[in-house]
Each structure stands twice: as C-alpha cells, then as structure tokens.
Write a structure and sequence with these properties.
Chain lengths: ~110, ~120
Amino acid sequence: DIQMTQSPSSLSASVGDRVTITCRASQSINRFLNWYQQKPGKAPKLLIYAASNLESGVPSRFSGSGSGTDFALTISSLQPEDFAAYYCQQSYSPPLTFGGGTKVEVK
Amino acid sequence: EVQLVESGGGLIQPGGSLRLSCAASGFTVSNTYMTWVRQAPGKGLEWVSVLYSGGSTYYADSVKGRFTISRDDSKNTLYLQMNSLRAEDTAVYYCVRDRPSEVGQLLLWGQGTLVTVSS
C-alpha cells in the first residue's frame, strides 16, 4: 500500500500569511494527488485535484504543486475562513490512502 | 438536487454487524465510482472502500474480509455491510461520489453517520 506522509501536523499562522503544507508518497504516484479541506463538524471538501488543478469554486489563493513523490499545497494569503484541517490523498492505486492531516490554527 | 444521505449508524457491541445505507439523488449510483471514507473521533480521514461502476471493489487492509461494499440499482443506494466490528471501527462514516471517470477524486460527500462500537 502507498503511505502518505503530511507535514507539519499542525501550524499556527496569521491572516495574510503564506502557508505551505507538504505531502510525500512512499512511491511515485505521478500526479494522482488530491487535497481536501475540512472544517469542524463538516464533511471534507475537495480543493485541488491531480496535484495542481483548482476545483471549481475554490479561491485562487489555493494552489497545488508537485509530481512523483513530493507535493505541496500553498495558501498565498491566509483568510479567516481558511483555518481548518487539510488532507492530501493519493488516487494512483487502491487503497486510496490519505495523509495524516494538517491543522491550520490561528496564531 | 444532487445529494447523498447516509443512515444506519448507531451503537453496536464488539463483534456485531451493521449495515450503512447511502441514498443518492440527482445522479445514478451505478454509473460512477462510489466510496466510503471514515473518521474516528478527533482523528484524520481513512479511506475505507470503493465500488466501481463495473462492479469491482477495493478495501482498506483494516477492513478487508469484514466489510462489504455494494449497491442496489433499483433503489439508487450504496451500502456498507460491516461485520465483526471492533472498537477501532468507531467513526463517522461518509459516503462519497467520486468525480465521474476519475476514481479517487472525492467530489460529493454525504453528511456522515456515526458508528460507535462499544460494550
């Protein structure tokens, strides 16, 4: 099975900060990498698919990059509504594993 | 309206069985990939199982041999049969519609149903 390692597990940031979360796969997954945002008590929401494609309706301050084993999610200017948990997930081969998550908190 | 509504969660004793249902509206379950994802209290997301439109199924190692994903086309409903339940299966279970033709891009999520395994 492919293991997904996300870092950091949590971070503290302020509104307006640039935030980067990284995700590493245990083997090459090409660009089969997706990012999700989850707010407390809510279902996750797909933000980025296929490593760098912005899902419809997602603000352009979110961006994704990477291929192979190393990926990143960047929020260019953190907004109040962005404080949430973020998860990467590989869709290269089943089982389609998630990373452990990153909680973005108010500094 | 395109939506998913899960049901069937509840309190069950270790070793017991439970069947979760996910009623779909606004699209046809049999025409797309359908996935179950779970989240233990205070923990991260865990992919559980996927059912392809063609009928192929895959499972996480943690549930393989105990859980079965299926669908009823006449009811446009997805199921997750869970047997030999353990305390570590306690979680909110989400039913998810993948993006059509792109397995693993989890696009439409249900509200989730809580399963608690405890004596």
